[in-house]
Amino acid sequence: MKKLIALFLIITTFSCNNDDDNTVDACVEATNIQANNITINSATITWDDSNTANSYILEYGVSGFALGTGSIMTETTTSTDLSNLEPATTYDVYVQVVCSSNNSSMYSNVYSFTTETPPVVAEFRPNLSELNLFSGDLSGLNISSKAFEYQLNSELFTDYAHKQRLIALPDGTSMEYDGDGLPVFPDNTVIAKTFYYNADERDLSLGRTIIETRVLIKLEGEWETGDYKWNAEQTEAVLDLDGSILPIFWINAAGETNSVDYEIPSNSDCFTCHKTYEQKTPIGPKLRSMNFDIDGSNQLDQLINNNQLVGLASSSSVASLPNWEDTSLSLELRTRAYLDINCAHCHIPGGHCEDASILNLDFRTSLEDSNIESRSASIDFRITSNTEGEGMPLIGTTILHTEGVQLIQDYLNTLD
Questions:
Q1: What's the pLDDT tens digit per position in 340-361?
Q2: Which domain range does residue 52 map to?
Q3: Number of domains forming the structure of the chain
Q4: Which residue in 124, 140, 196, 201 has its CB near the most CB atoms, within 10 A?
Q5: 23 is a domain residue
């Protein structure tokens, strides 16, 4: 029995020694993964390897991809260059160390980086996508981080179309305060307004039809205008200075089907309204029109805090144009606000109608100096006429704004 025990111990000892001789050190995962030299479409990925291996597998893809479905690269150094990436896109990267043909590490923890956002192009390129105002799928209207959206407390009526408004300032610049009208915009500022209709206002998931994107660009102190017409596939918009007519159908919140022959303006049409003393100029982004709260925060204060508006300490120093739809306000305030945003760009000194009309519909003008009372009959006739050359506004709409007409008429009746 003692001989059997001794033999077992000898065999066991030799077996253990044999196992120790064949042990392979574990292949340790890569660490300290980093992305450097990041551009709009490339990046350099580096990592550390404590194994001193000479082969690595890198897998990458748009953030959230599943391992095994990404792009794979094999490298012999702890560095690689990724190219042909999408701008303003987050990518995930995994690295596996290959110590030998039968000994590889686990994949590293995921490392993520985001490619640079391309700068907004301040020139009229043939296609809207070339201006880099939006990121991702163009029809999503996802505003580039190089631009910002702005809203107006009272909006101009355009045949019930919805509008998305944005401003892109050159890097390192700001708008400058210059009273409660338009701020001073730096050269190479881009202002864009996109017009669209929801298929059914009761169910926004049914999609929308984007019609046009109107663009203003400030070049060497002067504003230039251009209009981009969207294609039927909603994949691109093409610069079109001639204008056109497009039949549009939509269902409103009451479930009623509506239609309009939407008029995309020509470039000369744009100049009719977008001018002061024969100089092209923006209409909407006056500080008084932007001085209101959005989701509990004042829009102008947000611009100040973001250093997008300078020369102004607080929105409290700026007048505020009322919301004409706010029924808690007086009829006069609501009507004057409506006339300011819809009519005053032509009916002011230097506007298109200065020589043909004595009206001055700027909100800041007193009632007496506005001449609204003396011209009330003419105003009523113009806003209720849909005859070309007679109805107001002269261009920009093809149907009467029922709510706006009623508002103005109710106010004019108080002046009798």
A1: 999 888 888 888 888 888 999 9
A2: 31-114
A3: 3
A4: 196
A5: no
